[in-house]
Amino acid sequence: MEIIYPVGSDASNINVTSQKRLLRVVQGQTQATPTSGYLDPSLRNTSGGIRRPLSTDKEGVVPSEGAAAAPFTRTASAFVFENSLTPGLVLVKTKGENYAIADGGACKKASESGGAVFGLLGQWVGGTFDGVKNTSNISAWQGPDSQYDILAPGFDATELATNAAKMEKGQRVPLWVGADGRLTSAKKELEVEVAELVEYNPSVIRVRLLI
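-> structure tokens emitted (211 positions)
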């Protein structure tokens, strides 16, 4: 478990702390597969620490603080909470068994650079809640029809409440990859649907993967 302090709270007050996993498998006994892989080398800095993928990343160019060239050109920086990449971020496969944080804008050209969407990041990476430490081992949760709960802020809430209301009328609410790597219903940046909203409240969403 990782200790999460609500935004704006005093971490010294034990009464406002909670131990939660941002990504929880709900229905996955036969559907979900935690595929093992490794952080793309571009997610390491020159000292070996975790590096947040930034909007300035350019394909094939080594960032000033980076240890390896970026696998694709980003349109936005990857989402972080307390400087940690969060569980539930969408991953793309780069070379071999390496994975990077997806970017909805960049994934439009998946056949040219950045690879196709592959799954959901299974653990915290870097920052306060780092779960990989000195290794580069991560898991990518995938599997059509597998279901997951993703706790805020691990999803993009933009327009989500409005779109979620459509489910009461029997309409589907598809989810795509946002520019920061989180699932979003706000803008169709990637042609392929990644997931479908099953349940919604402001603090947690339940999604069904389509990949």
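The chain is about 0% helix and 30% strand.
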